[in-house]
């Protein structure tokens, strides 16, 4: 799924969008969505003028957005040529989630004995609310809040910062774009809650790491189903 950007798809994506207070954030969110949806396929050039035009803003916030997105792996900035949509490999995704799994396991191990009764009740409440929420964006926000409570209880601002950064990169966006992600999140939230409630540090740590590694498998399956990578016969691989 590589090639040129689809101008008509980009215009459709821009139609009726909610305006942000911060133009750079608006441009960044739009470009992220265009990449994940396939409107801007891998290796395609991100036309700053086109993005600015469809959003009704100047080029300056688009340029600022591309700098931020380059840091998070959404685009590759090529000197004197512009910004191009990054292409990720299976190995990139596996490596990314392996790093996240290790950090997540560390924060969970610390959190099990530090979570308060009120925080445990809040985790239960969030889990129930997520199960009853059909709106994807709301469900995703609640899910992030659930795992944020666990991470914060680990009392490590540095690890929290690492997880926050890794959660915003390209691979994470592809994961949440997958229809299978909601069921995967529900499965591991329930398992993690049980381990935390029982005070089983080893099981909670294992579940946390397994959850993150499962995200890699879901992401890879999703991208393959979308034709993100050519079939093996097209690359000469078997």
Give a concise summary.
This protein is mainly alpha-helical. It contains 12 helices and 2 strands.
Provide a descriptive summary of the structure in words:
This protein is mainly α and 238 residues long. The protein is built from twelve helices and two strands. The protein has a two-stranded antiparallel sheet with strand order 1-2. Strand 1 and strand 2 form a beta hairpin. Helix 10 (181-197) runs antiparallel to helix 11 (201-225). The longest helix is centred in the last third of the chain and has 25 residues, at 201-225. The mean pLDDT is 87.
List keywords for this structure.
single chain, about 240 residues, mainly alpha, two-stranded antiparallel ribbon, 2 strands, elongated
């Amino acid at each position: 799924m590589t090639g040129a950007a689809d101008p008509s798809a980009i215009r459709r994506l821009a139609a009726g969008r909610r305006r942000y207070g911060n133009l750079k954030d608006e441009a960044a969110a739009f470009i992220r969505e265009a990449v994940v949806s396939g409107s801007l396929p891998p290796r395609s050039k991100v036309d700053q003028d086109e993005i600015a035009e469809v959003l009704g803003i100047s080029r300056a916030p688009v340029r600022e957005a591309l700098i931020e997105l380059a840091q998070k792996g959404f685009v590759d900035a090529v000197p004197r040529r512009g910004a191009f949509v990054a292409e990720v490999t299976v190995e990139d995704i596996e490596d990314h989630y392996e790093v996240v799994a290790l950090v997540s396991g560390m924060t969970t191990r610390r959190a099990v004995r530090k979570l308060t009764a009120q925080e445990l009740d809040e985790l239960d409440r969030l889990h129930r609310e997520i199960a009853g929420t059909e709106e994807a964006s709301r469900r995703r926000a609640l899910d992030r809040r659930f795992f944020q409570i666990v991470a914060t209880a680990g009392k490590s601002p540095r690890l929290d910062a690492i997880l926050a950064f890794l959660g915003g990169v390209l691979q994470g966006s592809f994961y949440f774009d997958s229809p299978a992600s909601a069921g995967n999140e529900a499965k591991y939230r329930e398992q993690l809650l049980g381990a935390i409630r029982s005070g089983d540090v080893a099981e909670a740590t294992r579940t946390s790491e397994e959850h993150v590694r499962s995200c890699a498998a879901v992401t890879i399956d999703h991208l393959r189903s979308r034709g993100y990578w050519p079939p093996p016969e097209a690359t000469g691989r078997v």
